[in-house]
Amino acid sequence: MTAKLTAVRAGALTTVQDAGRRGYAHLGVPRSGALDAPAMRLANRLLGNDPGAAVLETTLTGCAVRPDRDVTVVVGGAHCPVTVDGRPAPWGAPVRVPAGAVLDVGAATAGVRAYVAVAGGITVEPVLGSRSTDLLSGLGPEPLRDGAVVPVGTPAAPVAVPAAAPWPGPPAELVLPLRPGPRSDWFTPSALRTLTSATFRVSPHSNRIGLRTEGPALERASTGELPSEGMVLGAVQVPPDGRPVIFLHDHPTTGGYPVVGVVAEPALASAAQAAVGTPVRFTLD
User: Fold this and answer.
1) In terms of CB atoms within 10 Å, which end of the chain has fewer, N or C?
2) Which phi and psi (to 5°) does residue 211 adopt?
């Protein structure tokens, strides 16, 4: 029989995430999936899982789970203390958790989102080809609650792992390469200069849908209204308050506010780990 994990402490927001559900934007379904995809892939590889196997993604406060059978886990992404039944355990490396013991993933000391990968992967029922929780549409499993039980798959054969995995640290400053358009002409030349010269900061109102910023407002050259149009991952939308919002994995697939530019997907992993107050700069790609 395969293992099951029981949530002892669900944390502020812990969800199941994998590589996401692609190809359904025309149906109004965003991609979802792990915000820090490189961290998810590395944690899985350290266990011999498929790189896109489903994991638990925690937010700021971590979580605690109890397996009903022996399991091997890796906790990576945001730096945080890890304990097994109260005893310190390695972060960023495979850890054996005996049946009935409590794996506690503590509050992030640097970064925002930690990833808990389990040998065999989390095997909740997939929806549209993905096990990811989508906070916008409600597809996939509900966010973890105390007492919730999630199943684990059969572990793959062990693989050789490096002595030290190359885990990146969270950004002290978030630098986002920006490709202008498609609605950059809706903003004044002064606003476009501000966008690429000013320093913004990560807003506490950020979430899996979008990273909101605080800073100077971008002045629009056009005061008209846009009909709803398609939105892509990394789109930088500017709502009426003039502060840019970078769309992340649970973003809506359409929107009516102008998009001043698009951030390339590889840069979004750092955005997933940028804590509130982190400086944000946009550079022309």
Assistant:
1) N
2) -90, 110
Burial profile 153-169: b = 16 or more Cβ within 10 angstroms, e = fewer: bebeeeeeeeeeeebee
Angstrom distance (rounded) from CA 123 to CA 176: 34
User: Is residue 23 within 8 Å of 57, Cβ to Cβ?
Assistant: no
User: Please, what's the b/e burial string for 11-33 (b: 16 or more CB within 10 A of its CB; e: otherwise)?
Assistant: bebbbbbbbbbeebbeeebbbbb
For the record, the structure tokens of 151 come out as: 């199943």
Identify the CA nearest to 101 among candidates 229, 6, 32: 6
The DSSP code for 232 is -
- Give the residue from 262, 176, 253, 211 showing the smallest Cα distance to 21: 253
d(CA 41, CA 25): 24
Cα-flanking dihedrals φ and ψ of residue 131, to 5°? -95, 5
For 58-114, the pLDDT digits (tens) are: 999 999 999 999 999 999 999 999 999 999 999 999 999 999 999 999 999 999 999
- Tens of pLDDT along 198-239? 999 999 999 999 999 999 999 999 887 888 899 999 999 999
Residue listed under structure tokens 């050259």: 221
Query: Cα dist. 219→88, 202, 227 in Å?
Result: 51, 20, 20
Helices and strands, counts by H and E, the chain: 3, 20
Cα–Cα separations (whole angstroms), residue 179 to 47, 76, 111, 261, 285: 37, 30, 26, 5, 5
pTM above 0.90, yes or no: yes
